[in-house]
Amino acid sequence: MNYHSIMPLSDLPEGSHRTVKSGDRSIALFHYEGAVTALGHACQHMGGDLGEGSVQRLEDGELYVVCPWHGWQYNLKSGQAPSGFQDRQAVYGVQIEDGMILVSDEPLVNAFRAAHEDDPLADLRNLDYKVTPSSLNVLGISTTNMNRDLPRPSTSETALQAALDFAVSEFGASARTIRIRDLDFRHCEGYYSRHERACTWPCSISEMDPEDGMTEIYRAMVLWADAVILATPIRWGNASSLYYKMAERLNTVQNQITLDDRVLIRNKVASFIVTGGQDNVQGVVGQLNSFFTDLGFTFPPFNFVGWSRGWIAEDTEHNYQRFFRSRYVKRSIRELVNNTLKLVMQIKQMDVTGLQTPKPKISEAGTLTEPEADS
Ligand code: FES
User: Fold this and answer.
1) Whole-number percent of the chain with pLDDT over 70
2) In angstroms, what is the C-alpha Rg of the chain?
3) Does 70 sit in the ligand 1 pocket, CB within 6 Å?
4) 50: CA distance to ligand 1 center in Å?
5) DSSP character for 369?
6) pTM score, whole prediction
7) Any idea what the Cα angle at residue 262 is, between residues 173 and 112, rounded to 5°?
8) CA of 256 to the centre of ligand 1 (A)
9) 51 and 19 in contact (C-beta within 8 Å)?
C-alpha cells in the first residue's frame, strides 16, 4: 500500500478537520486529541461532506463527526456509526513524516452501508403506488386552521366535504380527507439550501422521524391519490399558512425532478377550492397552479371554485351563510368534481413514459466562455 503526501501538519491544527484531495479521492482529515485520522469524505447516507461536519463527543466517550446534511455520526478513528448502527465510513491509514501528513491510497477498512431492515418508509422509497387503472381515489386536503376545542364554520372545508361527498355519490370514488391542522409535523428545515442532494426522497425529516405527520401526506398524495382537491381560505391575499408549511415539505417531491428527472406524480389531477371573506382568489389560484404543476399534476379546465365578497365585506359573520345560500357554490362544486374526475378517467389512458420535465438544471446554465446553446 502506498502513502501520498497530502499537506503540512501545520495546516491542520489540533481541533480542526477538512476535506482534502488524495489522488482522485476525497478524504476527510481530522486532527483531534493529538491524532490525525482519515475517513472517506462522502457520508454513507446521501453523500454529505464529512469534512464540513461538526465533531462531538458521544456518550461512549469517543469523538464522532456529525454529517452536516442529516446528522449521521461516525467515529473519527474507526469510521463506525454509533452503537446500534452497522454503517461505517472507509478508514485510511495516516503517517506523519517530516511534518507532512501522508495518507494511504487504499482504505485500511472499507466503507459499509447497512441494509436497514424494517424500513418504515419502504413503501415511499420503492414508490409502492396504490392507484390502479380503474381506481378513483380522491384526496381532499383542508388547510384551514382553527381551534380544535372551539371549531368555527369554515367555507373552504365545508365546500371540500361537499365535493368529496359528490365524488363518492356520483362517481363511486374512494374519498379521504386530511386536515393539515390535525397533523403534527416539522417545518421544512431547508436541507436543500445546504445541498440540492441533501433534500432527499423520502424527505430527510421523515427519514429521521417516520412518525412525522407529513409522511401521511406523502403516502396519500404520491402513492394513493388519483385526484387531489385542496381547499384553502384566503389569508391576507394568500393561501393559509398551513398550506405553505405543507408545500415547503413537498420540495422533496419536486426536487426528484430537478435532480434526476424522476417524476413521482404522474397521471394525477389537482383542483382547488379557494374561499375568502375578501379578495384575491385569482392570485391564490395562480400560486397553487404554479406549484402543483411543478409537482407533476395535471389540471382540468376551470380547476377551481372561488369565493370572495370583496374588499369592504367586513361583515364576516354573514360570509358563511351567504356562501351556502349561493346557487353558484353548489353548482360549481359539482362541476369542479365532474371536470376533475372525468380528466382522471381520461388521463389514465395516456402513456406518460415520454413525459418531459423542462426544469432548470445548474449543469445546463453554461459559462461565459461556452458557445451559445443551440436554439
Ligand atoms: S446524514 Fe449524511 S448525507 Fe444524510
Assistant:
1) 99
2) 26
3) yes
4) 9
5) T
6) 0.86
7) 115
8) 17
9) yes
